Amino acid sequence: MKKWTACALLALFSVIFSASAEQYNVIDLKSIKYRLLYESYQNGSWDIFMINADGSGRKNITDTKKIHELYPKVSPDGKRFAFSIDTGEGRERRRDLYMMNLDGSGKKLVAEHGREHCWSPDGRYIAFTKSESTRRFSFESWSTKGLFIYDTTTGETKEHVNKTLEHMYNLCWSPDGKYITATVLGGMGYRHTSIGIDVNSKKYVQLNVVGCRPEFSPDGSLIGWGKSDSEFDLAKIYMDRTVPVAEKDKFPFLSVTKGYEVYHLDWSPDGKYIAFAFGPDGEQNVGGTAHGWDICIAEIATGKWQKITFDGNQNKEPDWIP
Amino acid sequence: MKKFIIAASISALIATSISCGKKSSDTSVKNITTKSGIEMVYLPGGEFTMGSGNAGESPAHKVKLSPFYIDKYEVTQEMYKKLELSNPSHFKNEKNPAEMVAWVNAAIYCNERSIEEGLTPCYDEKTWECNFKADGYRLPTEAEWEYAARAGTDSKYFFGADSKNIKNYAIYSKNSSGKPETAGSRKPNQFGLFDMYGNVAEWCNDFYTADYYSKSPEENPAGPAEGKERVIRGGSWNDGEELVNSTARSMDGSISDACILRDTIGFRCVRRAE
Questions:
Q1: d(CA A150, CA A125)
Q2: By the 8 A CB rule, do A190 and A197 touch?
Q3: Domain ranges of chain A
Q4: What is the DSSP letter of A78?
Q5: Given pLDDT bands bounded at 50, 70 and 90, which one contains residue B19?
Q6: How far is CA B242 from CA A181, B163, B175, B239, in A?
Q7: Chain A residue set in contact with B, beta carbons under 8 Å
């Protein structure tokens, strides 16, 4: 894996990849062995769909009419996924955290008001935040309070030792298990930044990336994030350094034409591809309105990318199944 | 004594130059406290000249407004906390105005405050259209904001022509410490409204177009029917004289996108009075 990552980095040094228009049949999608989950709005509610990387075999795995299933995050062993369930509408809506098996069985409540979750690399724990206000629902990703760790073995939840954590979203656990990254908006003295939190102490550090939603590559050597609404950047990351991401190690990876957006980057288990959501100006928040958005896959080595869904049914938050 | 004469003159000015109230008691500026304990000022309806001859603020044009109530202070973080809403502010301090507020979140605050006081919310939270007939809280129209800021004056600043006096009435780039300060920590305007200039720039309800003044209706103008940006007014702790005044128009696109929120933008609420 590390050898492959080094090759990719060399390529990144030599070429600035960009994509200003939709491209078709530019990647050999059939050679990708993984499937993905994603959220999609169809027939009046959000559901979670499974799809092959080449866009075939799409299946609705939640298929409920009156409740919304969103933000799927697959366990490292590929057997289960954690996800949000929204019930009610408008200000009375509420969001809770559940997990279930990929075949749709074994649904279990993880945490009331839990959201923005991620799995530990060993698959035992689920980290999550909670809705900041239970008085009225907020779609805002940053409207959260605290960091909590759920033990899937015992069913117990513990709050992180740092009780000052707030307004964090898009949690991502580092592959070495030591850190959880998140974007913070209007919290902990920050305007808008991304941080890495030590899982076992009160320490946290700014990553030095402008933008939001950082995600580790599978080997933890790289990080990808949304530099803006329309750009993804990648960088080498060293979590043990005071400044984990150095300016010299940042690379532009993908950009799209003004008026379109890219969000929700997720690395494939082999580190060769990135899945993401793409579409015209819309709401990137979980459950936010994003008409015309589709799931896409980009090849790291070449920067080429293409859609794998075409219905534009607000398809967002792709997550690879290992 | 001098202070008294000035105050009396202002009251006389307000009472005589602002009219159109149907009842005699409606013709004067009054302080009120809402059910949830928030201080507001009743402003009688009236006519004024909106805009100026300056680029971006022209043409100056006559506007006639119905009476309305307006918050005495910018909405503070403490007011957010009372409604148990998420406070997005960068500079946390309960006495400071809320900032980093997306336009839709300002509208949500208005709706929540309406519900808290048993009033009908003005905003449809699916379309964000404002129902001006509802009795709840909403953001001021650009015309209402300028009318409130001018406080019966026809000059660029409500305190007169000398921009050196801004420091007494506003927290702005030349006297701020690089952040907002306690709401109401400078002098109010003649209507008793604090921080109409500076501290945080204030969202208005209107969409922004540069040429709106040339085609806006005379009575209760409510902005263009559609747009991508909303109007902000009054300038902030980070702005200079060019924005910290009664007439300068500005706009922002952080309607709902958290990625582009600014720690210079907040708001205050209004409510119809008829």
A1: 5
A2: no
A3: 35-260
A4: S
A5: very low
A6: 41, 10, 15, 8
A7: 90-91, 132-136, 138, 140-143, 167, 185-186, 189-192, 211-212, 226, 228-229, 283-285
**A156-171: string of b/e by CB count within 10 Å (b at 16+)?**
eeeebeeeebbbbbbb
Q: Which residue has the tokens 């309607």?
A: B255
**Which element (helix H / strand E) includes B169?**
helix B166-169
- For chain B, domains (ranges, CATH) are 22-272 (3.90.1580.10)
The ipTM assigned to this model is: 0.85
Tell me the pLDDT band of A23, cut-offs 50, 70 and 90.
Answer: low
| Mean pLDDT value of segment A30-52 | 97
Q: Which of B86, B89, B92 sits opposite A143 (nearest CB)?
A: B86
Q: Which fold has domain A35-260?
A: Neuraminidase (2.120.10)
Token match 């030792």: residue?
A161
Cis ω before B217 (30° cut-off from 0): no
Closest C-alpha among A94, A75, A73 to residue A85: A94
Chain B positions touching A134 (Cβ under 8 A) are 84
Distance from CA of A132 to the nearest CA of B (A): 6
**Would the pLDDT of B26 be above 90?**
no
B259 Cβ contact list (under 8 Å, min separation 6):
A192, A211, A212, A226, A228, A229
